[in-house]
Design a protein that fits this description.
Elements (H helix, E strand, L loop, with lengths): L5 H8 L13 H19 L2 H6 L11 H20 L7 E4 L1 H11 L9 H18 L8 E7 L4 E8 L17 E5 L2 E4 L16
Parallel strand pairs: 1-2
Antiparallel strand pairs: 2-3, 4-5
Helix pairs in contact: 1-2, 4-6, 5-6
Length: 205
Amino acid sequence: TSNLGGGEITEMMQGGMGFIQPADKPAASLDQKVERTAVEAARRKFAPEFMNRLDKVVVFHPLRRQQLEQVLEIELAQVQDRVLETAKGQFLFRVTQPGRDFLLQEGTDQRYGARHLKRAIERHVVYPLANLLATEQVHLGDLICIDWDNEQDRLTFVREGENLALPARKPEPAPAAKAAGARNGKSADAPNATPSPEPSPRLAR
């Protein structure tokens, strides 16, 4: 892999002024320019003998807004799954469009795509939610709305609902059989222990 032509492609995507201008640049035409720029940069860098040995040149196209939003949706869904799979403190949350815009701004870059999006979600969503749970400000069955506050210049976390019906927890996979002993050169599997039921968390209001 190589980042040949990366600077030229970034300038092309941002219109040379640091601002993305998707409305002014048709997707098909821009993709062709990106591919042509990358291939030309490779030809300038590598000898013709080396280029002739390549079966194919694959050009990385920067992620567009719609694709970045899809990545964000997947990452937020994974965070929600983590919350619902906990033994206690299960709750729901939703992120408004202004909140999503902030996360995309913090976690994506035209040069690096969505590489830092997971870190931004951990820092701005997961850690604050964990703090609310640790301080008992969020409870079982709550619905938390995460929004962007322009006046405070930060994300806000507001309880929108209480005692909501939660999706059923995913069944945990059976523990792998473990060797308990050996007799005549053969291993014996340990019996599966029946886990004791966990006490239901109490609602503190």
